[in-house]
TrEMBL record:
Record-linked InterPro entries: EmrE
Keyword terms of this UniProt record: Membrane, Transmembrane, Transmembrane helix
Lineage: Bacteria, Pseudomonadati, Pseudomonadota, Gammaproteobacteria, Alteromonadales
Transmembrane regions: 32-54, 66-87, 99-120, 127-147, 153-176, 197-217, 229-249, 261-281, 287-308
Name the record gives this protein: Multidrug resistance efflux transporter family protein
Keyword field contains Transmembrane: yes
UniProt superkingdom: Bacteria
Lipid biosynthesis listed as a keyword: no
Taxonomic source organism: Psychromonas ingrahamii (strain DSM 17664 / CCUG 51855 / 37)
């Protein structure tokens, strides 16, 4: 379990780049649609190159065939877990600074438990206690910085993120369920190609493309700036390719619902990394006693996850 927690924390480090770079792009006037959609365009490009170089053209063709065989599933999963999730995150960046988004996003810790229950997964009541501790720590961090939060920030900054907090674990759990092949209402995909986290991320990224096309036709944004294109490429690399692959790999290695909940809970570390980056790069965060207490709750909760799983 300790290894899974460490992998989750590492993914949280790279995930935090999303909040910082999105805040920078928002301040520069870039439209949220390009911040969201270009990320996945770059992700598809990066992942196709990685798959081609690591596995060859033959296996890449097999992967694309796997996508076509279950196209409806991958489109639905990619649209929920990647498309809707990240569109809502980028939309909220126009109304709230990165630390508010990062802190509010941690509601996904609780949302993940509810999603697991939706699929009939069960875990000890202590898992709820540990997750609540982490979420309480996140709330303290949020409150420590919330002296100037407006109504618009709460409505258009926080609410979309709360919705995104359900979309991301739902999309990832759908992939986990079909790989296990135990859910009667979902397809059973037993391909060894799904043993690689990179392949899962690529399939979900490809599945999100139809949603981006429809959303772009609806929103009709202006052309993106060069700086926004560069920043979304960085987000795609750090958060989309590296962080997401590490996170999905950690979830793949989890064998119990409580281990899945522990991996999902490590996303709370994004708040810490986002606060540090905001403090150093944007000077938009001030560390105070309440924030320190919040950080303590976050890491104590994660520590309990590790201790509970490693009990004899």
């Amino acid at each position: 379990m300790l290894k899974l927690i460490n992998l989750g924390l590492l993914s949280g480090l790279f995930f935090s780049a999303t909040f910082v770079l999105n805040e920078i792009m928002s301040e520069q006037g870039g439209h949220w649609f390009w911040s969201a959609s270009l990320r996945y365009l770059f992700m598809v490009i990066f992942l196709l190159i990685i798959a081609l170089l690591s596995d060859g053209i033959k296996q890449l063709k097999q992967l694309l065939q796997l996508f076509l065989q279950h196209a409806v599933f991958w489109i639905v999963t990619g649209s929920i877990g990647f498309g809707a999730f990240y569109a809502l995150i980028c939309f909220s960046a126009d109304y709230s600074p990165g630390w508010i988004i990062a802190a509010t996003w941690q509601f996904t810790i609780v949302a993940s438990l509810l999603v697991l229950m939706l699929f009939g997964r069960r875990f000890p009541s202590r898992v709820w206690l540990f997750s609540t501790m982490i979420f309480f720590g996140v709330l303290l961090i949020n409150l420590s910085q919330a002296t100037e939060v407006s109504i618009n920030q709460l409505l258009f900054g926080a609410l979309p993120v709360l919705l995104a907090a359900f979309c991301y674990p739902l999309g990832n759990q759908l992939v986990w369920e079909v790989r296990q092949g135990q859910h009667k209402k979902l397809p059973k995909i037993h391909s060894p190609l799904l043993d690689k986290a990179f392949n899962k991320v690529l399939l979900m990224s490809l599945g999100s493309i139809p949603m981006w096309i429809v959303l772009g036709l609806f929103v009709q944004p202006g052309l993106p700036e060069k700086s926004q294109i560069l920043n979304t490429a960085l987000v795609a690399l750090f958060s989309g390719v590296i962080a997401t692959s590490i996170f999905i790999y950690a979830r793949t290695k989890a064998t119990k619902a409580s281990e899945l909940a522990g991996v999902d809970a490590t996303q709370a570390s994004e708040v810490v990394f986002a606060m540090i980056a905001g403090l150093i790069l944007l000077n938009s965060v001030q560390i105070n006693l309440l924030a320190i207490c919040g950080l303590a709750f976050v890491f104590i909760g994660l520590g309990f996850f590790v201790l509970y799983q490693n009990r004899p």
